[in-house]
């Protein structure tokens, strides 16, 4: 049976380390009660950078979760004020890095070229990138979803010879921008069309779905063939997140 990847993207939350600790320990104790399902899923927690040192020790000895970051820079070190390098993340026991999230593309003007450089740096550091791609509502209405996704992938992976030889370590996350944080998830039928297109185009690599995932709709995406989920808002409610993990694994067992 395949092993799912379920990523908790805490984004810029919570505002204090104390809250982060309290939340995490509640989440951990609830996950520990479901150890039997954890052999079928990798749970990746991506807190804000500043909380990573706290999670480092816990991650090193944990069989419950893996640690991830929400972004990183493309250089290893040097005069890059405010940036965090992949090597720093590795030192803090991070194994995964989210790249190209639509909030960074839209609010911070991250381009496919910049994301491509980050991708290479993350792979060089032997971390696992989770590369986010997705179309806006306007693009979907115009009927150019596949064109947009293809362009995002081609420009980001320009130094990899697509589809043959890019690393198996890249995890892709299809996150339609209009579904993120809106409570309006992509319908399974539409998501499946995209999944089939991506599988054909990429040939390799795991593909996750993200965008208004909750415990009710989580199984839909697993049933149609996604390899896991990228969860935002619902990952900040311990009970709901654990239920997402359980329901996703349970639906996998049925197929
Ligand atoms: P959401 O966020 O689950 O709140 O829609 C998903 C994401 O931004 O990765």
Question: Could you describe the 3D structure shown?
Answer:
Helix content is 43%, strand content 16%. The protein is α/β, with parallel strands linked by helices. Strand 2, helix 3 and strand 3 (66-69) form a beta-alpha-beta unit. The chain is globular. Bound molecules: 2-phosphoglycolic acid (PGA). Residues 9, 175, 180-181, 210-213, 230-234 line the site of 2-phosphoglycolic acid (PGA).
Supply database-style keywords.
single chain; binds 2-phosphoglycolic acid; 8-stranded parallel barrel; 255 residues
Quote the average pLDDT.
94
Instruction: Note the beta-strand portion.
Output: 15-25%
Report strand order across the widest sheet. Answer: 1-2-3-4-5-6-7-8
Bulk shape: globular
What composes the largest sheet?
8 strands, parallel, barrel
Bound molecules: 2-phosphoglycolic acid
Number of helices: 11
| Low-pLDDT windows of residues | none
- Structural class per helix/strand content? alpha/beta
Count of individual beta strands: 8
| Proportion of helical residues | 40-55%
Question: Secondary structure elements and their pairing?
Answer:
Elements: E1 4-9, H1 17-32, H2 35-38, E2 41-46, H3 52-61, E3 66-69, H4 86-91, E4 94-99, H5 102-107, H6 112-124, E5 128-133, H7 137-142, H8 145-156, E6 171-174, H9 188-202, E7 206-210, H10 218-223, E8 228-231, H11 238-253
Parallel strand pairs: 1-2, 1-8, 2-3, 3-4, 4-5, 5-6, 6-7, 7-8
The structure holds 2-phosphoglycolic acid.
């Amino acid at each position: 049976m395949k092993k799912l990847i379920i990523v908790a993207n805490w984004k810029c939350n919570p505002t204090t380390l104390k809250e982060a600790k309290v939340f995490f320990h509640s989440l951990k104790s609830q996950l520990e009660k479901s150890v039997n399902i954890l052999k079928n899923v990798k749970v990746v927690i991506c807190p804000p950078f500043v909380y990573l040192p706290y999670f480092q020790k816990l991650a090193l000895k944990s069989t419950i979760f893996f640690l991830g970051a929400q972004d990183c820079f493309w250089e290893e070190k040097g005069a890059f004020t405010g940036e965090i390098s992949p090597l720093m993340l590795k030192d803090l026991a991070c194994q995964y890095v989210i790249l190209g999230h639509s909030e960074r593309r839209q609010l911070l003007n991250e381009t496919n070229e910049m994301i491509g450089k980050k991708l290479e740096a993350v792979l060089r550091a032997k971390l696992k990138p989770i590369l986010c791609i997705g179309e806006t509502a306007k693009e979907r209405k115009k009927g150019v979803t596949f064109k947009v996704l293809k362009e995002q992938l081609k420009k980001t992976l320009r130094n990899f010879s697509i589809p043959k030889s890019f690393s198996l370590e890249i995890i892709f996350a299809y996150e339609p921008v209009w579904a993120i944080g809106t409570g309006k998830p992509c319908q399974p039928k539409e998501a499946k069309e995209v999944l089939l297109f991506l599988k054909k185009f990429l040939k390799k690599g795991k593909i996750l779905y993200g965008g208004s995932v909750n415990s009710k709709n989580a199984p839909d995406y697993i049933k149609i063939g996604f390899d896991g989920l990228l969860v935002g808002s619902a990952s900040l409610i311990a009970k709901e997140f654990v239920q997402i993990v359980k329901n996703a694994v349970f639906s996998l067992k049925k197929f």
